[in-house]
User: Which sequence fits this backbone?
């Protein structure tokens, strides 16, 4: 075990960036999973979700690469508190599947967005598995 002491002024953006660069070098880089692995994890994530969570995810994916409006998300799940709980539960489930990065990221105004490549996979899974499940494809898992 090694101890590293890092001292920087958190109010100085240049020092913060230097500290971040140093810490990034210490953390091993994550390899991006292949699209089929991501697809399987998305299927696993969506299985068992009810209509509100599924529609929340669909709305964010459809807005990609832009952001889904906070008011639209509140309308989907029912209340501002439910938006926070829904987002938190989805992110915990995504991390539990050992997937890198956020599944859905939020901005300062409460809007939500998803990586464009991930959104494409999510929309395909929603169509193929949730909306119009193919019983032969489903039987292979």
Assistant:
């Amino acid at each position: 075990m090694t101890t590293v002491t890092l001292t920087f002024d958190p109010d100085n953006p240049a020092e913060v960036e230097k500290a971040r660069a140093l810490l990034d070098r210490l953390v091993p880089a994550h390899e991006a999973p292949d699209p089929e692995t991501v697809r399987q994890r998305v299927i696993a994530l969506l299985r068992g979700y009810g209509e509100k969570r599924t529609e929340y995810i669909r709305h964010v994916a459809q807005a990609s690469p832009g952001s889904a409006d906070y008011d639209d998300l509140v309308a989907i799940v029912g209340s501002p508190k439910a938006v926070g709980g829904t987002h938190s539960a989805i992110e915990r489930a995504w991390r539990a599947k050992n997937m890198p990065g956020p599944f859905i990221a939020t901005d300062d105004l409460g809007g939500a967005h998803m990586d464009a490549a991930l959104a494409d996979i999510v929309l395909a899974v929603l169509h193929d598995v949730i909306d119009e499940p193919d019983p032969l494809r489903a039987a292979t898992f």
